[in-house]
Amino acid sequence: MSDGYSKNTMTRRNSKPPDLELYVKGVPFHLHNSAKVTTLLECNKIDELRWILKDIDVEPTTFFLVVSFCYGYKIHLSSENILSVLCTAYYLEMNNDHSSNNLLNKAVTFLEQRVLMSWNETVKALSVCSDKILDKIDDVGLTEVFLDSLLEKALKDPSLLEDLTTLPLRLYEPLIQEASKHNVSIENLVASVYSGDESVSRNKRQVLEAIERLLPHQRGAISCGFLFKSLKESMFLDASPDCRKGFEDRISKQLDMAASKDLMILLPNKAGGAYDTNLLKTILKSFYSNYNVSDVSRFVSVARMLEEFLFEAAASDAGLSVETFKAFGEITVAASCDVLRYSDGIYRAVDVFLERHRDDLTETEKMEACRVLDCKKLSPEACEHASKNEKLPLRIVVQVFFFAQKQIQDKVAREMESVEEKDDDDDIEDMNKKLLRLDIESDYSEKREIENLECVVHCVKEKKEERKISVWREVKRKFGCMTSLTVDACNCHIKKRKKTYHHYK
After folding, report:
1. Which of 378, 380, 267 is nearest to 315 (CA)?
2. Tens digits of per-residue pLDDT, 14-24?
3. Which residues does the UniProt record annotate as the domain NPH3 (predicted)?
């Protein structure tokens, strides 16, 4: 290191330059060991010396370390000051060309051996950087060095990424992009946004908005739980409308893949908290606009999920008011009315809501809560339970009895109709059997009649032939042609064997 110099020493060509008195944010310092200062002094550019530090943002504490080094004092380098010291030394050209073992060389060595080797120290060093220091880091090519160091460690242990909210956004976004290219889970990349000190909420908001821009839009690419959590965080951090809508759109594309616990994320963390029921309406409206009637299985999944959510919300510690419960119930009814045969899930939610507020609801409020209940869509089991439910208003119990009775009548009517249809089927079967038997008997009778007719015709023919033969015999006798030896070959008088027909049943 160079020796110190007396103040106000005259400048000579072959002698070392004098100290220079500089002011950093009102604090005076004397500086040497700087090639830049030496050059300016030798060139007698005093006006430029007045503004030598205007291009870098350096605190007096950092500059004090630089001056202390110039005068041979031992300085303490740390993760918090290393980049500021390094950039100041680089700007002042405090390199080994000007003086052996100069400050720039010491700062680079400390950075390589003590900071970049550790994830925590690297994050700590970057977290305290001002924009001007970050600009200088970019100029000297150190930004890429830091990102490579962080990425290498994150690929080995993705859980380390939970410490990134304190990083400047300009480093966070490229780190996410590079990590995603190496198949690092997006959910690991942004896990830190949902925890940490509220004092960095502004930075967290910017980080969350950057994350939303980077997330894929494909259905199922990101879990529903993560998207709901991100949406809630965007509301808490008062993120931009585009950021919030981005999460809503991704949720609506895969709402049928969500579970009731995912919707529960949106509930207030403590009783009395406000809940925007219009948010759920917006998501559902977007969901239904994405699909058509051929996707009925998805509609069924959403209807069942909403019923389960209504039940869990009513049973939770969120302390839903009657108005909020009713609003959720109306949304659930709208989703299930033409999709589910029974609405037992809604009845279960009403039952548990009345149980949770057994002592603090008036009869009017109970009736308001029960308006979401459609007694016509209760299963026989639910009707039986509701008819004995003392928590329900009397008017609701009467309605349940009425529709339960109607269900019984309908069931009996269906069973009677089924029995009649069965009897009719049996009668038709018996009739078919009888007709088949009559057809067989008729066929046999027709055959007998045909046989008898054939026999009659044959006899008539025989008589005609016999008469013809008799006449011809008489003629022959008259002519003397008949003798006693003439044999009559006619055998009509021989009775034919009767044909036998077998009757198969």
Report:
1. 267
2. 444 455 566 66
3. 134-407
